[in-house]
Every structure is written in C-alpha cells, then in structure tokens.
Specification:
This protein is an all-alpha fold. It contains four helices and no strands.
Length: 100
C-alpha cells in the first residue's frame, strides 16, 4: 500500500519549484507527474497567448485560464507544504520529520 511509502523526491526542491515555477508546472515534472505538468504548462501558454489578442473576450478567457492555473498552483503548493502531495508513483512527498 502506498499510504506509508515515502517518496525519494526532495521535499524542499518540490516546494521551491512549486513556489517559483508553479504556474508553469515545473514541479509536476520533477515529481514525476508528467501529464499534470504538460497540462499546467499548456494552460499557462494558452492563457498568456490569448491575453495578447486585442479582442476583449479572448483576453478575458486567457486571464481566466491564468487565474485557474494560479489557484491550482496554490492548492498544490499547500498540499506539498502539509505533506499530502504524492509523486508520480503514488508515494507521499513528506516534509522533514513527518510521520507516516
């Protein structure tokens, strides 16, 4: 059962990547959640691209995508901070001293 298995991924690296590059999904790539990372990166790219259009509707849609990405990043960063986020193999990325 994966509930009591600790991930080999470094907690500090995962939190730092999430805090700095979270909107781009870099932390997902590090944690082994490749499809999640591709989705996050695509959301950021499409959102930023749509914001470049002069059409207000497209710009607002792009802004909406960026807001969704930021909210998702905040949730994932919080999950990492409290030690409840799992890597791509289903193992917990635990903070130092966390009991399983």
């Amino acid at each position: 059962m994966t509930d009591s298995v600790k991930s080999e991924k470094n907690y500090a690296v995962a939190v730092i990547l999430s805090g700095i590059f979270g909107v781009l999904g870099i932390h997902h790539f590090y944690c082994g959640r490749i499809s999640h990372g591709v989705f996050d990166l695509s959301l950021a790219i499409v959102g930023l691209t749509l914001m470049q259009f002069e059409d207000v509707t497209l710009a607002l849609l792009g802004l909406g995508l960026i807001v969704i990405d930021v909210i998702h990043t905040i949730v994932v960063t919080f999950m990492l901070l409290v030690g409840s986020y799992r890597d791509g193999k289903g193992k917990l990325i635990t903070y130092p001293g966390q009991k399983l």
